[in-house]
Design brief:
seven-stranded mixed beta sheet; 2 domains; Rossmann fold; alpha/beta; 375 residues; 11 helices
Length: 375
């Protein structure tokens, strides 16, 4: 069976590596989507273990759709009855990009009618109560190629279930995990987020370095689907718990705002990561290594103007960061995400590498500094 794992733009490789790690075969990678083959029961293991994907879908099929008739016939030809019962709900939503069928509401209406007609023919009824299990149908039409899917995740996979509340400029958990992964964490290198907000980067670092499955403590839409054995979910969770390892070198989160630190501690406790992270109230101006002489990595998401509406303050903060890091931890590696095209100018250093990423809909760069060489 084919599945689609969707992800933020720029995280396709990492999402694909998650699939590889579970032993499933990748078929195709497109912007924001990775298509792969796996047995139906893999829905449980994938949802629980995917660290970088946003959602997991069952792929029903794909076809060319130049007209509404094409869309209707292509949708009706798919085996919806293999998944959706006669009393189940099946709402439709989706997107259309660079295609002749550009009206999303019209596409929703046509797809809904096609599924109803298909199920009517199978079950011999014309009216559907839609009072049972909810199967969210999603379509994606790109360059006149339609893909029809059923969502298995429910809430987006970036919602791990530990973030009870966030600060003003939240970072998606999937993106935070990617930033940690790209820093190549090592057991003998401490990790510090000096502007941790609600603690997302530090918590994701703890989850990753302890090999804790990010979805182990949350529920998923597909847990209600009768065609997936309940044992698939219990076995996947049991296997994930058995794979957890001890926390390596220290993980630290600092923030000038006391309420943010209190929130971060609560979130870490909910994630089961309190013992792996040290949170403290500390101003970035007073930043120093928490362990004298230690090798370390800074991974952080400083406030930026597009989110907080104050570009000048954000740039002043970059200048402070550049100075403090150069003075206090000149040999440390730095991973800083920012949407400011002039980030390096205000930080005072040219990065060794910039990786394009998206925080929600905001285009950002992950600025990576491997050595302290001013330009």
């Amino acid at each position: 069976m084919e599945f689609v794992a969707t992800c933020l733009f720029g995280l396709e490789r990492l999402a694909g590596e998650d699939i590889d790690a579970l032993g499933y075969k990748r078929i195709d990678t497109i912007d924001g989507r990775v298509v792969f083959e796996a047995p139906l029961e893999a829905i449980a293991e994938c949802n629980i273990n995917f660290r970088y994907a946003e959602r997991l879908y069952i792929k029903l099929g794909d076809f060319k759709a130049f007209s509404f008739e094409d869309l209707y016939q292509g949708t009706k030809a798919l085996p919806w009855e293999n998944f959706i019962g006669k009393n189940d709900a099946f709402p439709v939503k989706g997107h259309s990009i660079k295609s002749k069928l550009f009206s999303v509401p019209d596409c929703q209406r046509i797809i809904k009618k096609a599924v109803v007609d298909r199920l009517s023919g199978v079950h011999g009824i014309k009216q559907f109560s839609e009072s049972g299990i909810k199967y969210q149908i999603e379509f994606f039409i790109l360059n006149d190629e339609a893909v029809l899917m059923i969502d298995t995740s429910g809430d987006s996979l970036h919602k791990r279930g530990y973030r009870l509340q966030g600060n003003l400029a939240p970072l998606r958990e999937t993106l935070a995990a990617a930033m940690v992964n790209l820093s190549r964490p090592r057991a003998d290198v401490i990790l510090v987020d000096p502007m941790c907000g609600s603690g997302t980067i530090a918590i994701e670092a703890a989850l990753l370095t302890t090999n804790t499955a990010p979805g182990i403590n949350r529920s998923f839409a597909a847990e209600e689907y009768p065609f997936i054995p309940k044992t698939a979910w219990s076995n996947a969770r049991e296997k994930a718990r058995a794979a957890v390892i001890a926390a390596p070198a220290g993980i630290y989160g600092y923030d000038i705002d006391r309420s943010s630190i209190e929130t971060a501690r609560k979130n870490a406790a909910t994630a089961g990561m309190s013992s792996a992270i040290t949170f403290e109230v500390r101003d970035i101006k007073d930043f120093t290594s928490p362990v004298e002489g230690a090798r370390g990595t800074v991974i952080t998401n400083p406030p930026y103007g597009e989110r907080l509406g104050d570009l000048q303050s954000a740039r002043e903060l970059l200048r402070i960061m550049g100075r403090v890091f150069s003075e206090q931890v000149p040999s440390w590696q730095l991973y800083i995400i920012s949407s400011d095209d002039e980030m390096e100018k205000h930080f005072g250093r040219r990065s060794d590498k910039v990786r394009k990423l998206y925080n929600g809909m905001i285009k950002c760069g992950l600025y990576q500094f491997f050595r302290n060489t001013k330009n």
